[in-house]
Design brief:
It is a multi-pass membrane protein. GO terms for molecular function: mechanosensitive monoatomic ion channel activity. It is found in: Cell inner membrane; Cell membrane. The protein has 258 residues and is an alpha+beta fold. Helix content is 54%, strand content 21%. The strands form 2 sheets. A 5-stranded antiparallel β-sheet has the order 4-3-2-1-5. A hairpin with a 6-residue loop joins strand 7 and strand 8.
């Protein structure tokens, strides 16, 4: 068996040049995909009308779209028929999809969250039994930051399939109202102490002063008369539960001392 060295040399040169072209094409495609992602992100951010979650999603979509085109071009450079490859990839994707139904449901839920945008980055939400501030949303996971600065990662399938309570959807002040019984003789002093504590709380709305009122008599026993003390304050909806709990704790401590 004879070897035609001229043909072998020409083939090596051809494939060597194709390999060099493929490497250059991959490098250019990688740089171009990043540049396109940054360009699209910058354009969408300048408008101030597109949600940051959608901006990140579209930027990533453009990046991977460019990489897919570059990958097909590299395969064609080596003479690989992309039509048969697409058929093989389709069959493989079907098998992988059946094996990863949970992951794909999270992907579909992530797309729905990005399209309908029930919340935005920075919103205070309660979802799937967790509460926190939305930090990011990817195609598979939603990241929250709890009040104690703890990271909470939720699969998008749980987020989309659960009730979402968004405390930041309607900006403005909510009302905290707490009522509890106290002895009639200590009602005024207790009201003053609670008012002092509320005025020092930065979460209280400065435009509406908190109030403490004696609303009604609960027990008219001369030996130990009881009245109902009602505390009202304006706070952000996301801070309502925390402020209410602080008022209750402070009132319980004052009542214990009294």
């Amino acid at each position: 068996m004879t070897v035609n060295f001229d043909t072998l040399k020409a083939s090596l040169i051809l494939y060597g040049l194709n390999a060099i072209y493929a490497i250059l094409l991959l490098a250019i495609g990688w740089y171009l995909s990043g540049a396109m992602q940054r360009f699209v992100t910058r354009v969408l951010s300048v408008t101030h009308r597109v949600d940051p979650l959608v901006t990140l999603f579209v930027g990533s979509l453009v990046r991977y779209g460019v990489l897919a085109v570059v990958g097909i071009a590299v395969l064609q450079l080596f003479g690989i028929q992309t039509a048969s490859l697409v058929a093989v990839l389709g069959a493989t994707s079907l098998a992988i999809g059946l094996a990863l139904q949970g992951t794909l449901s999270n992907l579909a839920a992530g797309v729905m969250l990005l399209l309908f945008r029930p919340f935005h980055i920075g919103d205070d939400v309660e979802v799937a039994g967790k509460a926190g501030k939305v930090k990011s949303l990817s195609l598979f996971m939603t990241e929250l930051v709890a009040l104690d600065n703890t990271q909470i990662l939720l699969p998008n399938g749980q987020v989309w399939g659960a009730a979402i309570v968004n405390h930041s959807a309607y900006p403005g002040a909510g009302e905290v109202k707490v009522a509890f019984p106290v002895r009639a003789g200590s009602a005024n002093a207790l009201a003053d102490r609670i008012l002092e504590q509320l005025r020092e709380d930065p979460r209280i709305d400065e435009g509406a002063a908190p109030t403490v009122n004696v609303s009604k008599v609960i027990a008219a026993d001369p030996a130990a008369p009881l009245v109902e003390l009602t505390v009202s304050a304006k706070v952000k909806p996301s801070d309502a539960d925390a402020v209410k709990q602080r008022v209750l704790d402070h009132a319980s401590a004052l009542l214990a001392v009294a």
